[in-house]
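Summary for the steering committee. One of the milestones for this cycle was to obtain a three-dimensional model of the protein with iron/sulfur cluster bound, which we needed before selecting residues for the alanine scan. The sequence and ligand used are listed below.
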Amino acid sequence: MGLPKLPKVSDPGLDETAKMLTPQRIEEVINRVIQKETAARLKVYMNTCVHCGLCSDACHWFLSNDRDPRFSPVGKVKQTLWEILRKKGRVDPDFLKECSRIAHTECNVCRRCSMYCPFGIDIAYLLLLVRRICSLLGLVPQFLQDTVNSHAVTLNQMWVKQDEWIDTLQWQEEDARDEVKTARIPLDKEGAEVFYSIIGPEPKILAQLIANMAQIMTVGGVDWTMPSLDGWDNSNMAMYSGDFETMGRVERVHHEAALRLKCRRIVMGECGHAFRGAMYDGPKWLGWKEPPIPLIHAIDFYHELLTSGRIKIKQKFEEPVTVQDPCNVVRGRGLGGKLREIVRMTCANFTEPEPGLEHNYCCGAGGGTINCGPPWKPSRVKGNRVKAEQFEATGAHIIITPCHNCHSGIEDIVAGYNLGMHVKFFSEILVQVMDVPEDLQA
Amino acid sequence: MHQAREWNGDWDWETGSRVIADTKPWNESYSEIHEFVTSRDGEKIAAVVKTEDDTHVPCVNGQPWSNTFEKAWSLRFCPDGRLFCFAMNDDEWTAVVDDEPWEETFDFVWNPQISLDGRTLAVNVRSPEGYGIALNGRSWEQRFVEARSCVLSPDGLRTAANVQMESLAEGDILGFAKGVWSLAVDGRPWDARFLNVWGCTFSDDGESVAAEVRPNLIEQTIAVDGKPWEQRFKAVWEPVFRPGTRDVIAPALTGEGWKLLVNGKPLWDRSFTQVWHQTFSPDRRIVAAVACPEFGRWTVVVDGNLWPCTFSHVVMPPVFSPDSRRIGAIFRDEGSWGLVVDRDPWPDRFDMIWDPVFSPDGDTVAVKAEKRGKYYLAVNGKVYPRAYDAMWDPQFSPDGSKILVRAIADGTFHRIVLPVSEVVG
Ligand code: SF4
Ligand code: SF4
C-alpha cells in the first residue's frame, strides 16, 4: 500500500499468549462466536457496507494519522473482521495479534462513525466482536487484561482490597469535614434515597473526589449511602476486553448492592463507560431490559441539585473553561445539553468546543484503550491530534471532563501537545463555587 | 425465620403501644447521631453517637456504652438482642459486643456475619501477617495474601473465605492465569487453585462447602470441597446445597441458556434468559428461584413451574413461609415496588418494599413498605393507615395472632403490638 510501517509495540498480553494458540482452537473459537453469539445485524452490516469510506472523516484516529486509511473505521473492519470471515476463521496467531492491536488499541468504540455512515452501520459493534474473539483466545493487551483480572477478583478495576475501600472512605469523610463540618459518608445505610457508586481509580489514586462528593451530598441535603462491600465500583473494562461473562458478574454485583440496600436509585460518579456498562451492556447481558432500579449519571444529578436550588452558587468560577462531551453520556445518552447548563450555572467564562455535543471527538482514551497501558500510549496520543487542536482553539484554561477515561486521556493529550491547559472533573468546580451554609462551615 | 418461634415466646406480647425511647434529647447531648438500629424484640433502639470530646460510642435507649472509640461503625443488633459494632482506638480495630471488645485487635475488621441464633459472630480481619477470619474473637491461625469473603456455616461453627495463595506482581497476567485463588475452610485451604473463587456456601451440617470457580479464563463451574464438576460453563452463579444432602444446585449458562443444575446435570427440563437466587423451602422439598423467562420479564419459578405473572424490572429472592406452604417475593414493575404471594400480586404498589414476613402457620404475611417518605405496615394486602418516619421489619407472635411493629414517629421509638385482626379488619 506504500504506507509507512507502524511502530512495533511489544505486549506480553499479545506476544506471549499468541504462542499458546493452535489453528484448531482459533478456528473453533471464531466459528463458535460467529455462529452462536452474533445477532442478525452482523450479516446485515457486512452485506450493507458499500465501502464508500464516508465513515473515515468521523474517526479521530484517521484524521490525526494524516488520513491513513488503516485508521479509518471501515479500514479497521477490513483489516480484521472481513479477513476473519473471508477465511472462515482459518487465520494465524500473528494476524490475530494485529486484530487485537486494531480493535483493542486503535478504536475507542466511540460510535462517532455510525453517525457518518449513510446506513448507520455500527462499526464499534463490529470491532467489539473482534475483541470478543481475541479475548476468548486470550489475546488482550496486558494492562487491559490485568484490569479485567482485577474486576474478576475484586469486583473493582484497581485491585482495591475490601479493607482499603472502607478505610479510604473513612479518611475521606474526615477530610471532607475540614470544609463541611457535618460531612458524612454513611456506609450501608438501608433505605437511602441515593446509592452512590464510583469507579476504582477514585479510592486508589483520586480519593479527594470522594471527599468532594461527601461535601456536595451534605450541602445538598441528600440522603445517600455507599456500600462497605463489593458493588461500589460501577466501572467495567471487561465489557471492553470482550470478557462478557466477567462484565455480567461485575454489573450484577453493582446493581444487587443497591437493591440489597433498598436504595431508591443509583447515582453514578463522573464516568462515561461505567454509565454505558451499568445502563445498557450489563443489564442486557443479564436479562434486564433496563437497570432494575433507576440509575443516573453525575451530570443529571448535579443538574438536579443546581436547578432545584439544593445547591446554590456562591461565586462563579472565573477562569475560561470548555468541556469534553464524553461519548457514552453525550452521544450515547444525550446529556450534552444538561452538561452545558450546569457549566453555565457555575462558570462565568465558557467556550463551546467545535465540534461539540454528539458530534464531539472521542477523548481517545475511551473504550478500554487507555487501559491498554503505557506501551500503547504513544500511538493513542498521536491518534488524537484533532482533539488537541479542538481544545486549543477554545482558548480555555480548564477542560471540564465529567468522565474518568476522558480525564486521563485528555491529560495525556494536554501534556503530549503542550497545551498548557488543566483538566478538572465537574465536582472539582462545584466544591469550589458552591455556597456552604454557615452552620455547615468547618 | 423458622427459629422465630423459639425466640419470641417470652417477648412482651401484650397488645398496645409502649414508648421505648424519645430520641429527641439525644440531639442535645450529642453533636452527631448515626443511623438507628433496633433489637428484634423492640425493646432497644441504638445508634453510634459522637460525644463532646469527639469520640464515638453506641448509645442504647439513651444510655451510652462505657467504652468510647475514635471510630465506630457497622452497628447492629444480633438476633439474640446483643449489640455489635466495629470500633477503633489507637489505630487498632476490633469487634465489640454489648460494650465488651474482643481481646484480639487487628489492623482492620469488616464484613460481620452473624449466625441465625445470634450466638456466633465471624468477621474478616487484616493483621500485619495477612488476611483471615476471626470467629467469636478468635482468629484463624493461617493468614493469606488476601481473603475476600466471610461465610459462616448454618450452625455457626465453621467459617470459609476465598483466599489468595500467592502474591502476584502488578500486571502478571500469566501468573494470574495459572490460578492463585482457593477456598479456605477454618483457615485450611483447598489444594485446588483457580483463577477465581466466588460465592461459597456450606451444607447445612457444615461438613461440605461449594463455590463458583473459574478454572481458566473462559470457563466457570462449581467446585465442591475442592473438586470441580466435570461440566464446564461460560458462567455460573452461587451454588446452594439441598438441605440434608450433599447435592449442590447452581445456575449455569449452558448452550441453551441459563439452567439450574444439580451436581452438574439439569435439575429441570427448561432453560431461562436468566435464573438465580435458588432457595429451598424449610421442609427441604421445594426449590424456588428468580427467573427471567424472556428478555426483560421477571418472575418466580417453583420446582420448574413459572408463575404466570411477570414483572418488568426485578424480582427479589423468594421467601418461604415457615411451614413451606407459601412463597412471597417483592418486585419492581413499571416504576413501583410490590409483593407477589403465591402467584398473586398485591394490588397496592409502593416506592419501596421490604421482604415479606410470614406468620408461623403461613396464613398471614406482613411487610414494611414506603410511600412518599413515610413507612407503613401492610398485612395480607391491606395497608394499615398509620404512617411512621422510620420502621423495621414486623414480627409475628408465636401463635401468629399478633404483630410487633417497631417504629419511630416524631422522634419517639415505639414498640407496638397489634392484633392481626385489627390490621386486616
Ligand atoms: S474510534 Fe470511534 S470513530 Fe473511530 S472507528 Fe472506532 S468507533 Fe469509529
Ligand atoms: S460509511 Fe458505512 S457503508 Fe461506507 S464504508 Fe463506512 S461503514 Fe461502509
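Key point for the committee: Residues A 49-55, 73-74, 117, 119, 121, 123 surround iron/sulfur cluster (ligand 2) (CB under 6 Å).
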